[in-house]
Structures are given as structure tokens and as C-alpha cells.
Give the backbone structure.
Amino acid sequence: MADFHEFYPLRRHNTFGFDARARFAVHVRSEADLTAALADPRADGLPLLVLGGGSNVVLTGDLDALVLLMEIPGYQPEETGDAWLVTAGAGENWNALVNRTIADGMPGLENLALIPGTAGAAPIQNIGAYGVELRERFEGVRAYDRHTGAFVWLDLRACGFGYRDSLFKHAGAGRYIITAVTLSLPKAWQPVLSYGELARELDGRAAPDAATIRDAVVAIRSRKLPDPAQLGNAGSFFKNPLVSAAQRDALLQANPDLVSYAQPDGSYKLAAGWLIDRCGFKGMTDGPVGVYGKQALVLVHHGGGTGAMLLALANRIADAVQARFGVRIEPEPVVL
């Protein structure tokens, strides 16, 4: 029988540090723990929430739900002809996984260093940074299908990845519970240095190895993003909006310093942080919540606030950006 904790405090399980309690919580350290929790009569009729590192959620109040605290460990590399396949338990810390693969001579994840959260959460968001998205290093996931009561394998195509998007946010939401992630790291590794900020950080260094790129990414992120252990945050709060070339050109004409990135389909991704900064929100404080002074894309919790307060601030910011630029920015975290 699963070990259910009633009215369990979740403050340590969300990086904003909001106080909230779960009706029940279970520490899931194996697939057997998972199936036992789901079969327990106490779970009947309750909504289900899976929490890994809690780095991509905004808790706006107590949860009348069963919360599965995903802590399944595991690290298993396998060599194939042209790649390393690395399977990690869903509860593995993502940044520790990045560091371990590099140390073990399997590069490919270095651009994704220091992203908070767990391996199991990475596919849900299709995490990405500095020119690389998870889907480019992805083989598949093992997941429990609540519709069939069986464990299944979902490959790259099945996961339906998009920009900060996946099957697990749409048709698969609430259906699949990821227990392990398998990554595909090519043996014919090539550094990805297309992102301007990363290229500047490396300052033209010839043929940097994966560890050097990882260190550069860590340096950039450490300068721009606060440590959640010191200041509550979930990293970048808003997605960079996608606009047509015509809309981007019109905005560029009115704002010559607009920051944008061309996409393969001809659209443009706008820097949400730049939009927010131009609306005057960078560094502002609104009671116990605010916008980080070094990066306008990051919303922060100074303590004593609520998720509802943070959400109200996020809506004010999105409305201001819409009014000034005609572009709607959307939050990355899941609001609960």
C-alpha cells in the first residue's frame, strides 16, 4: 500500500516557495509506488497532479488532489552505432543529468545546463535554451497510461513536441505519467553556437568542447536568473511570442532595437524579456512579488505572497505588452 500523507505542505516542492497543501501526497520512488498509489481507494475521485522539482508550476491555493511527488531514480547509458542512448529516471535532477553525461563523455545536453527541474518534467515542456530544444536530443519516454492501465513507450513523433509544448499538455494531459526518459546523444557531436549571447560568452574560442559550452551557459544563466533557493522563481515566466514576418517588420520599423529571431518557417520569435522591459516592469516590486532586476522575463516571490498575487502581476504585464506592441505573451508555467 502506498504511503499517503494527508494535508501535505508543498512549499518545498515548488520553486516559487508558495504555501499550499495537498489533500494527499505520495512519494513515488518506483513504478510499483506509482501503481499502488493510483490503485489506493483514497485516490478515488481526486484530481491527480504529478510534481517533480516544482520549477514549472504556480500554486494559487491548496489542492484538493492527490499529488505524486516524482522521485524515481535511474541512469543507464547504452551505446548504439551512431548515438548514446541515456535512460534517466523521471525523478533525476535535470542539471545533474547534464553534468553526468558530459563527464561520461556523452556530449549533447550542454546548452540545456542549469535548467531547473527533473528529467521527467523536461519532455512536458520540451525544454530549450541557447539554440537547442529537448526534442533534438530525444528518443522516447516510458509512461504509465491511465486509460489502459499499462506502461507504454512514446517515441519522438508520438510526443508531439512544439515550442514549449508537447502531447502531455494536450491530449495526453492527465493520461500519461512519465517514469523514465531516454535521450539520444549523437556520437558525431557538433557544438551548437548559433545563439548570439552564447557565442559572445565564448568570445570566438575555437572548437570549444561540451564542458566549456556548459560552463558558458551556466555563467550566463547565473548572471541573469536568481537561485530559487535564495529568491522564489520559476526561471523564464513567459514564452517568447511567435509573429509573422510582416508583423515583426512593422514592429522593427517602430522599434529599431527590437530583439527577434528568425524561425525556419519564416516567422519570427520576439524576445519577451525585451517587450516587458520596454513596458517598464523590469525590477519592479508589487508587494511580495515582482520582476527580477537583472532579467525582465523572470517573475519572483520575495516571501509571504501567494500564487494569486503573482498571477495578477503576470496578467498586468501581458496586458501592457498587448497594449503597446499588439502581441500577447503567454506564461510558461502551469497555473494550478
About this structure: The chain has a mean pLDDT of 94.
